[in-house]
TrEMBL record:
Phylogenetic classification of the source organism: Bacteria, Bacillati, Actinomycetota, Actinomycetes, Kitasatosporales
Lineage: superkingdom: Bacteria
Leader peptide range in chain numbering: 1-30
Annotated region described as Disordered, given as residue ranges: 276-298
Transmembrane domains' residue ranges: 173-192, 199-218, 249-267
Species this protein is from: Streptomyces galbus
Protein's recorded name: Integral membrane protein
Amino acid sequence: MSPRLRTASSAVLIALACLLVPLGTLAAWAAYDLTDTDRYVTTMAPLAADPAVRDAVADTVGDGIAQEIGVNRVFAEDAARSFTATPAFRAAWDAGNQAAHAAVMTALHDDDRAGPVTVDLATVTTPLKRRLTEDHAPFAARLPVEHRPVAVLPPGELAALRKGYHVLHTAGFWLPLAAVLCGAAGIAVAACRRRAVTATALGTALGGAFLGLAVAVGRRLTLDDLRDPAHRPAAAAVYDALTATLRTASWLLLVLGLTVAAVTWLTRRASLRGRRRRASATPVPGSPPAPEPGRARA
């Protein structure tokens, strides 16, 4: 294979690898991080102490209580906000997230299921009523605890989400593998492998930067699409928690790529300096020998 053809093939493979790096990272995050129930619950658990999330939960639960039992809305929200500061709320928060995520994942794995995805409302209302009763809150005993199914995913969205899940589950494995193979092949066939390594490293860093930019743009678009501006701080906290792993991966790609490129550049300069020193120390054929040290000239 001629050097020109090797260089062209290497450039194509390296460019493809650098393109697959952010896509593969995104697919792997969606396929293996978001779909793990235990990891999801662990990620969401600290949000129970986030003030914005607590306020959003208090507003939503307070409105539901006021409509259900006919009490003053402000009082219901104050009672719910007081509950969000208790350990019982954190337990209910974890239980609700686990139940919702497990229900969604079960529906995604069941290709024959076509109805809405639901969770039992009692998983949240039971600890709420218990805590309010212990605090001797008025009307706490009247708070209904019913095993009522609450839809967390409408049936119209289940089919599309299931198809996307299967695609991401496949892409989450093959895209990162393809990126590694293309990068390795591009370096192997390159006429100058040192330059190929540098190009691959810089492309990886660029992919990490692009991934971080995509996460930031997605955050902005997600918050702009919310109907209630008052809940944007809570939505931002949830978005940041879910994408924390993705942001870390983007920084790792950026730092790793720049580090490898810098090391390759430094080793190249050191190699060039060594060659120049050896070349200057080697006598040119036909030149007179250097005078011996300490010997006087005639």
